[in-house]
Amino acid sequence: MLKYIGVDIGNSGLRIAELDIARRRLGAMRRINWRYAPGQPGNDPRYQPGDSAWLAELDDFFSTESLASQTDATHEHVWLVSCVRRDALAVLESYIARLPACRMELITHRRLPLECHVQSPEKVGIDRLLAAVAAATLSPERPLIVVQAGSAVTVDWLSRDSQRGQDVFEGGAILPGIPMMLRLLGKGADMLPEIDADDLVDLPELPGKNTEQAMSCGAASAFVGGVAHLIERYRAEYGQHVRAIISGGDGMRLAPHVPEPVSVESHLVQRGLLILAGRIDSGTS
User: Fold this and answer.
1) Which residues are catalytic, by number?
2) pLDDT digits (tens, 9 = 90+) for 233-274
3) What is the pTM of this model?
4) What is the three-class DSSP state of 24?
């Protein structure tokens, strides 16, 4: 019997989850956060992506969640990996290679039930495509706007080829998220500090009374305003009825500032991996 593990290696961290295809749901899950600078603050442990120290978190995940782990050779484990960080991928590949009855598949656009109408499909972040696959199963409406609000923010357009019955990823827009904006401000301006965005839970009050508050106000407003503007442009061209499906770490913060129709859904990338695992298991992918 095959068991499936989904791994999403992103720019700000890694998320691992049990893909429970029998019940069509995500099982146990854990987040591992990357560190961008020595001594960077945060509530959780943070790691350099290329430092194998974070593998201890994977061992703990399996033992804590009582999952069939790497010590269990009675099941073959298939690791489905979405990746936008090659340094962390190299560490994970070495880890999986040492495990019994495990194999890894690095997901590409060719594996997905999705056409890509862009110039270079192989260069599109696989997380964007997996999120589109998941969004397509959550709503029958087409077209759809799919927003992933993380360290980088993507606002993508999903249509459908009615003659072929095929969902189509049309491309979209990419802008920096709040954590990335604050890091870039700190790195690009000598007198500005680098700020950790983990403590931002809502739009900061205006006006900011110190440099840190002013930076947080600007980053949060640019984030909300940029996404809202892109959604407005899509709807101005294709109709105000077009639904936006929002996910990612900052999705809950963003959603109240986007006009209806809008839905907030968690873990779109992992849901996309779950859908793919089901297709692989049934032999349809």
Assistant:
1) 127
2) 999 999 999 999 999 888 888 899 999 999 999 999 999 999
3) 0.91
4) coil
